Amino acid sequence: MTTARHQALAEHLADLSRTLLRAHWHSAMPGGQPFDDKADASPVTELDRRIELELRETLVRETPAFGVVGEEFPAHEADAEYVWVLDPIDGTKAFIAGLPVFGTLIALCRDGRPILGVVDLPISGLRWVGVEGEATRLNGHPVTTRPCAELAQALLASSNPESPPDHHLDALARLRRATRWRLYGGACSAYANLACGRLDLVVDSGGMTPVDYCALVPVIEGAGGVISDWHGAPLGLHSGDTVVAAGDPALHRRTLELLHRA
């Protein structure tokens, strides 16, 4: 079971990341943020690495028996009973471009299942905290998803329309046609806002890894929503690269049906 100490530690990590990101944001000069291309062609900045190293150092000191899986460095004891999962800057492209929808994701998994999740948006000052079996909180206040059972009324978000593999394109095209309107590029902020009823559906395919979604699981489930892979299986430390999150369980079922038909 997640203890109050683990929750406090996760929020402390989010505070550390927020401080570094805000300081950089307010001191950044015009002309763009320097970045490198990783092996998968996705960008990474020096700040990504710096934040993850600081968070890892804190975790090794405070929870030495726990594993750590992060975005930028090799996993440490990934087969431990408890494993922290870190994404220092989710939405690095937005961060580089100066769009304040990026955030830090922090999760704690037990036996591969996310039991604690923090989504912190440093520039807007918004923080969602989800704990297995408890109501999700946004800046300390409980939040819930909104009812929306029909695809025709659903507000759909997706992180990157360039990421899906070719064999998923037809399914995603049908989903776009079936929904009310679409939003792209929101990264973790789209999933977090689903948890407080501002969006109804977020669907992604390709490029998604456990660091991108483990923190989202307790946040969305604690708000009354459902999140899974495209087959309806729960997401965790060993899941693949597809995600379906819906605020309404009936909408989640209808979305899976449409994706499977396509």
From TrEMBL:
The keyword Hydrolase applies. Keywords: Hydrolase, Magnesium, Metal-binding. The keyword Metal-binding applies. It comes from the Bacteria. Mg(2+) 1 binds at residues 71, 87, 89, 212. GO terms for biological process: L-histidine biosynthetic process. GO terms for molecular function: histidinol-phosphatase activity; metal ion binding. Its cofactor is Mg(2+). InterPro entries: Inositol_monoP_superfamily, Inositol_monophosphatase-like. Mg(2+) 2 binds at residue 90. Its EC number is 3.1.3.15. PANTHER family: 3'(2'),5'-BISPHOSPHATE NUCLEOTIDASE (PTHR43200:SF6), PHOSPHATASE (PTHR43200). Belongs to the inositol monophosphatase superfamily. This is Histidinol-phosphatase.
